[in-house]
Amino acid sequence: MPLDKIEKWVSERLVQLEEKGSLKGKELVIREIKKSSGTRGSRYFVEGEGDKEFMKMNSNSYLGMSLKKEVIEAEKEATEKFGVGPGAVRFIHGTFKPHVELEKRLAEFHQREACMLFSSAYAAVCGILSPLISPETIVISDELNHNCIINGLRLSKPKDKKIYAHLNMKELKNKIEECLGNCQRVIIVTDGVFSMRGDYPDLKELMNLAKKYHPEFKEGVFTIVDDSHGVGAFGERGRGTCEVTGEDGVDILVSTLGKALGVNGGYVVTNTKIVEYLRETAPFYIYSNPITPSEASAAIKALEILDSEKGQKMLRNLKEMTLYFKEGLINLGYETIRGEHPIVALIVRDTQETIKLVNYLKERGILAVGLKYPVVPRGDECIRFQISADHTRDDLDCVLGVLGAKKWKEN
Q: Is 110 a catalytic residue?
């Protein structure tokens, strides 16, 4: 067989990944969902687990939009009208009215001139970095930025890449000064909310640094923020990290439709000329099918709900449930990262203990994600819980009860 030799190499590589602790292994398959009722949020049935019910504490659907009746109905209606797929990339007649309408609505939501959709936020980040990076560009990146930023920079091959310590604005300033006289253009790129921890940068200070040094470079300094975990889940009106920090001047904002908005796809909002340029040059946009017209319609409905009194009520409940859960962990004696974002990191600081705790939770019907070295730095191993507006206080009491029982046994 022609694959015999490569299969041997692949098998060795899989063993190496397992030994490093980064092997993801077999994927868990959800076969059915029991929607929320009474004081219980939704429960999930997992392939191979019989009739055992699981509570998801690892979902990016922060507002439970993916199960909202209005969102499902909007997608159904659009599917009947437009079919199940776009049939082509955007420039070859793959653009449908819902795509254009959604871009308009997202631009208005973020108070920006223009928006363009991508198949995912990962594709959006990778897709825009290369066209915006010239041979005379230096990129400055937070050390804990998401994998999409890391790989986007690898594909783009800037003149240089500088990494600053996580959230350290003083070090960011030093990195900008190192670029003086060495390039024509500087790009500062960061996550909004960091997916492993739930913390976020001081965007006001970051933007002040960009503005201060902008005149020192022939092609200036500009900023890119990927706020996929922030938009729709953070801030009183769901505008994400920009709203929370009071900074609305970020030059290029990337986010997703697949987390708080509960659907699928990613997008970029910025000024009209940049979007016009990216439509002509971003390969992940030009050569990939867009999200389906029905997904775009579902996202429009989700955005409509978010940008209403009902949405603000959901956000208030999400914040209340998040703080309740964090306080519960602290009262039990667990270490966590303080803050109001619904990513709640239970700090474990040991890979094997993290694995044991994830398994302990699963045995008791709770699904959570263990973040281990080398996914996170050694000593930062943790369990990532993600609170949803679909969770009830009874749900969170159940999880805290399980964690409390484990703590009691250990002591």
A: no
